[in-house]
Amino acid sequence: MDETVAEFVKRTILKIPVAEMMTILQAWGFYLKINCRRTSTSGERKESLVHDLVLLCEEKRARVSDAALLDIIYTQFHRHQKVWDVFQMTKEPGGDIDLFDMKQFKSSFKKILQRALKMAQLYPAKEAPQSDSASSHMGNSARLWVILSRGPFACNMSRVINFLVSVTFRDAEENAVWIRIAWGTQYRKPNQYKPTYVVYYPQTPYAFISSSQLRSSIPLLGQALTIASKHHRIVKMDFRSRYLDSLKAIVFEQYNQTFETHNATTPLQERSLGLDINMDSRIIHENRIEKDRVQKITEEVFGDYPQPRLEFAQYKLETKFKSDLNRGILAERNEPLRCLVKFSSPNLLEALKSLAPAGIADAPLSPLLTCIPKKRMNYFKIKDK
Amino acid sequence: MAVLRPQDQLPGLNTATILLVGTEDALLQQLADSMLKEDCASDLKVHLAQSLPLPSNVTRPRIDLIVFVVNLHSKYSLQNVEESLRHVDAAFFLGKVGFLATGAGRDSHCSVHRNTVLRLAQAYRSPLLFCDLEVDSFRVSMAQRLVRMLQVCAGHVPGVSALNLLSLMGSSENPSAEGL
Amino acid sequence: MSVSNQDIDPDSTTGVEDVTDGKEELIKHCEEMWKDMEECQNKLSLVGTETLTESNAQLSLLIMQMKCLTAELSQWQKETPEILPLNEEFLVSLGKEEFQKLRHDLELVLSTIQSKNEKLKEDLEREQLWLDEQQQVLESLMVLHSELKDQIVTVSESRIFNELKTKLHDIKEYKEKLLLALSEFLEDHFPLPDRNVKKKKKNTQESTIQLITLHEILEILINRLFDVPHDPYVKISDSFWPPYIELLLRNGIALRHPEDPTRIRLEAFHQ
Question: Looking at the UniProt record for this protein, which Gene Ontology cellular component terms does it annotate, in alphabetical order (chain B) (predicted)?
């Protein structure tokens, strides 16, 4: 087994908390047989366990793709550690209704991505590939080939392409497919420690992509995704959260369900604190009718189910100062006022929902705040009409 | 009934009624609970209201003390109190109104300056109490204090009237208030 | 303004319960008071309401407060303390109640005092125990002290002097003994070469020189080392028998001068 693969496996396993170790390793499957031998791991120190596992992986000649699979499983368990962007794809009207073939999707996604990346790297910046530059193309490839063939590994052209990117798939719940892409360059192996994740639900126009620093690779990813899923356009929505399941619920309008169990009990407690009317007969609520009204309006807007989890909403305002009273410096400004308002909370929608019932804001709330799930966005730009 | 008057009804037998006015229901509710837990010879009744005027279609006992709760973290809460004050008869301010400012403990969260509330209380010649209602122990001691005030205001303490108490509190409570 | 002062006194209502005869009288009294209150209430309800704004509140409230306080003052001055009707039975029942209350209070005080007493007793016992322990410690310390006192012996100078003298004497004797033993040993094992040996006779020159014993050589070396420590070297004279010099040098008892091979010294064993 390659040394880098061993290191990759080791680092991935070290990330896993001991409590989840068995579950994740079993989901991995690659080492299921081996793990039967060693049922109790709880008492052992993690380091020794990791050491043993790496040795076993070496024995079994694990490949990068096996390790990448383990990384996907880990990320599936810890999906809230990433920030997810929502992308929406569209088809041109009149297109045929295709039957979705997962196998075909995977192979064509991989192929298109590799090709796109190769083109992008061989012709970087604005220089578009032209037919007469084939020679230079050849030249580059040849040079690359020479570099690689001098290396310690035997290699051919297909290996060169593999070199640029490594793509791993894993089928997940509800037909979803998780795609892990580790990016490389023509001179370097794919960096396994800064991968991009894509979660795609087949036969829907939505994909969720984990935010990464490699901004330049996102268009390529979009291109591969669009073509492989037989769509025509892809647009990044202004919608982003740590909670993949919540994003999914909003996008697919699957509200009536429970959301990620992370701290799920707190909003309920808050509600019971403020809103339940005390049974003590000596306490009389004077504004009971008003309270009921607020409750009703809130329920109309937000529904009576627990809200999907979002952490923030951002509003970019570009507006003129309006006031009849004091004609100050602001009133005479011709340029618009620009400001950014950011709402953040561990559970933003739940917080917004409890604003009016807690008496902090008037009911109904501004539609700007309540439209987040309906509009499927939490980044807004607001301008004067 | 739009304007709340202190002596619009005969008192109930051995009953003392307090009206808590404030936007934040949860805080008022907790304060009310703490007050009812206090040991007290009179029958306590706690009315909670978001704002004044109170709805006119219900009968309620005579209100002996109104406490306006201002959350220093929320300008809305201050505005609400200022609005509500317009629906209170002047006679109430003869010792039967108190202001309670909460949230001063977390200075960074404050959007209402303490002096603003102090000036408001000063303008209405009424005592201003500070208490972080979110802290259990503070709330309990504040509840205790309010219960004592209420008993005086309801006339259940022989020899001390509400006005009497007010003039006593005024001198000790905010000695610096005059300077504002 | 005095309405609140005339509120029904809770004591008067509870006081009624026990008394049957005085009950009616009291109820009548209460009803009169209630009627007074209703009258006042009627008058009050005629007074219009007045609301304030923040800007005008201060002055009008101050005026109102002043008026009210004056009214209250005059009320207090006018008022004679109201006495409950002096019905004997009523007084008895009130007194009883008062006594019962007092008894209850006193009982409370009693139990508190008792528990306090108990606690004090416990404290006392503990303190006593502690004191005993301390005393025991003190006693044993005293015993130790006196024991140590007995052991003290007056140290006399002459005694020490004598002791040292005897020690010195002993050591000197021991030294003599050692020296004696050494000289005997040397005499026995390292004698001077026999002059009667025939080989030596041939060398006439040599026979004229008086050789000294190993004992004497060592003595010279030792004396030199201690008399002139800065220059302990001794010149090898003809009276030193060369084989003995060789012996001393070989065994590291003597050392040759690094520059002058004709001089030797004794190894500094004493340093």
Answer: cytoplasm; kinetochore; nucleus
